[in-house]
C-alpha cells in the first residue's frame, strides 16, 4: 500500500491520506503544521478556534505515531505554546526523547519576553528499539580572530577536530529570513535543519514522511541524503513548487561514501561514527593549539548544487592530488 506514495508529494488532506498508510510503515515522521497564527497560506485558513485546532492536531499526531516503525522517530516543530499541548497528546502514545531548542529569534512583541526559539519535539515508538546516531557540528569560532569561541574549561586537549556532539540546543542553524531565499510560503525551514534530523535517526533508503509538506524542505533534504520521502500537501500550488524543486535536486550530499549535510561548501553536520573515514578529506592541524587558532579545511571544496562526482571519491583525490591542488575548485587556506 505504501509504494504508491514513495518519493511523491501527494495533494490532499493529510488525515484522509493517512488512512491509506499501513501501521509501522515509515522510519521517520516530521511535521511543521500551521501555527494557527493567521499566517497567509495560499489556500487554507490559519485561524481555527482553540479546541477545533487542538482536536485536529491530536488527530494527525496520532496518525504520525501509528505509521512510524518501532525503530523510528516522530518530530514535531512549532512554537512553545502549541508544543505544550502536543507533548500531552504524544505522552499518551509514544516515549519522550528530547525537546530540541532551535535558537531562532523573532521580533519583540511587547509586554512579554522576546521569543527566541522554536521547539522540535522528539518522540520515539520504543526507546529500546530506537535507531539513533550521534552527530557533530563545527566548532563555533570568534568572527574576527577565528579562534575557538569556547575555552572548554581547560580540557581543550580532549576536543574533537571537527566539532562537538550536537546537544538539544541548536544555535548554529539560522532561519530563512530574506525574501530572495524563500518560496511563496509563510513558513519555510532551512534544509540543513531537516538534514541534521534525518542523519540522526535514519539510514540510506529509509522512508521519511511529512504530512505538511509545504514547499518541500523535508522531501528535498531526504532526496539529497539518499532517503525515500513521502509528502502530503493540501495546496496544489505548493505541490507544484515542490515537484519543480525536486526535479533539480540530486542524491549527492556525500563526501566519499558517507552522507553529510552541507551548507554552501562546508559540512555542517556529520555522523560521529563516520569521522574516522571523513577526516582523510580534511587538512587537520597537528596539535590542539593549532586547531584553537585555525579551522580545519576540506582538501577540495564540494558544491552540493553543482557536484563534481569524482571529487567525492577519496581514491581519486589521493591519486590526482597535484591536479586538484592546481584546479580552480581548490581553495587554499
Task: Give a structural overview.
The structure is a single chain. By secondary structure, the protein is of the alpha/beta class. It folds into two domains: 2-137 and 172-250, Vaccinia Virus protein VP39 (Rossmann fold, 3-Layer(aba) Sandwich), CATH 3.40.50; 255-326, no CATH class. The chain is built from ten helices and 15 strands. It has helices at 14-18, 50-67, 80-91, 191-201, 217-224, 236-247, 275-278, 288-293, 314-319, 321-326; strands at 8-11, 26-31, 68-78, 95-103, 117-124, 135-136, 169-170, 207-210, 228-233, 254-255, 258-259, 261-263, 266-271, 282-283, 297-298. The chain has an eight-stranded mixed beta sheet, sandwiched between helices. A three-stranded antiparallel beta sheet has the order 6-13-12, with helices on one face. α2 packs across α3 (80-91). The protein is globular, with a radius of gyration of 21 Å.
Amino acid at each position: 500500500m505504501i509504494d504508491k506514495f514513495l518519493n511523491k508529494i501527494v495533494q490532499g488532506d493529510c488525515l484522509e491520506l493517512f488512512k491509506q498508510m499501513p501501521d509501522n510503515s515509515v522510519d521517520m515522521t516530521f511535521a511543521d503544521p500551521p501555527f494557527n497564527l493567521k499566517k497567509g497560506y495560499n489556500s487554507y485558513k490559519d485561524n481555527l478556534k482553540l479546541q477545533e485546532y487542538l482536536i485536529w492536531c491530536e488527530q494527525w499526531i496520532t496518525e504520525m505515531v501509528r505509521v512510524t516503525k518501532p525503530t523510528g522517530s516522530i518530530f514535531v516543530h512549532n512554537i512553545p505554546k502549541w508544543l505544550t499541548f502536543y507533548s500531552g497528546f504524544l505522552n499518551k502514545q509514544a516515549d519522550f526523547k528530547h525537546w530540541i531548542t532551535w535558537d531562532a529569534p523573532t521580533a519583540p512583541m511587547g509586554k512579554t519576553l522576546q521569543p527566541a526559539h522554536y521547539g522540535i519535539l522528539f518522540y520515539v515508538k520504543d526507546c529500546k528499539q530506537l535507531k539513533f546516531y550521534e552527530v557533530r557540528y563545527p566548532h563555533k569560532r570568534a568572527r574576527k580572530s577565528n579562534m575557538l569561541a569556547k575555552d572548554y574549561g581547560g580540557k581543550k586537549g580532549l576536543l574533537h577536530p571537527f566539532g562537538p556532539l550536537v546537544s538539544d540546543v541548536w544555535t548554529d542553524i539560522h532561519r530563512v529570513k530574506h525574501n530572495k531565499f524563500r518560496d511563496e510560503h509563510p513558513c519555510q525551514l532551512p534544509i540543513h535543519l531537516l538534514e541534521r534530523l534525518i542523519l540522526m535517526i535514519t539510514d540510506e533508503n529509509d522512508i521519511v514522511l511529512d504530512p505538511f509538506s509545504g514547499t518541500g524542505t523535508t522531501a528535498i533534504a531526504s532526496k539529497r541524503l539518499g532517503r525515500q520521502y513521502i509528502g502530503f500537501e493540501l495546496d496544489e500550488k505548493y505541490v507544484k513548487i515542490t515537484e519543480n524543486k525536486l526535479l533539480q535536486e540530486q542524491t549527492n550530499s556525500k563526501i566519499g561514501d558517507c552522507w553529510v549535510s552541507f551548507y554552501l561548501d562546508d559540512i555542517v553536520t556529520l555522523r560521529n561514527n563516520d569521522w574516522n573515514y571523513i577526516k582523510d578529506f580534511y587538512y587537520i592541524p597537528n596539535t590542539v593549539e593549532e586547531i584553537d587558532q585555525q579551522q580545519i579545511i576540506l582538501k577540495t571544496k564540494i558544491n552540493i548544487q553543482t557536484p563534481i562526482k569524482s571529487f567525492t571519491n577519496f581514491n581519486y583525490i589521493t591519486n590526482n592530488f597535484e591536479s586538484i591542488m592546481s584546479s580552480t575548485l581548490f581553495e587554499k587556506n
